[in-house]
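INTERNAL AUDIT FORM
Audit reference: QA-55
Scope: verify that the stored structure record matches its stored sequence.
Auditor: D.O.
Record contents follow.
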Amino acid sequence: MSLLIPLYVHPAVDPDAWHRLIEAADRTYAVVLNPADGPGDAPDPAFVSAADALRGAGARLLGYVDTDYGLRSAADVMADAARHREWYGTDGCFLDQVSASGDALPGYRKLVRALRRRGASSVVLNHGVHPAPGYAKIADLLVTFEGPWSSYVSAFSRPDWTARCSPDRLCHLVYDVPEALAPLAVRTARERGAAVSGPVTGELPNPWAGLTPVLSGAGR
């Protein structure tokens, strides 16, 4: 099983979810750390401890960095990534709100190359939709769907280029999934060409405040 885990809740608020995640670290593709919509202004001791435990359990750690669809400066993105790496020992970056436009591709290509030169061994791009196919050549993983289960079931479609892309390079993040259907969401992602997924039961504004039932033991 290959699960991408954005767990956007403070370890002090839901320590049980973090403990369960640490215990199941070997079942994850990566864990996204997001202390404060990014690394924050200073190291958070609770996240430092959680990151140490996850790393010890073998998890790959990605620091959350918002790119604001290409509007944030590369310098600000690089600074966030550097703080994640220095404070939490992250292996790479989860770049959020990434443009899907082909026009923005050269800028993102330059950014990803710079992040790799600075030590990012893994770079995940969260478009939330299918982007121009060239993005698949610059990232380790593309999030090509982010949305509610209702839309995933009724309105999902994918372009032809995804059939030529390795499933290990594609991810679907689905929220508002009925708990009993979380394993089905994983299987559905695989059937749709995405070997990595992360179904959660949560709803907007923060669906990622709870651990996926697939890891927690519920719905199995």
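Auditor finding: record pair retrieved intact. The CA atoms of residues 128 and 145 lie 4 Å apart.
Action required: none
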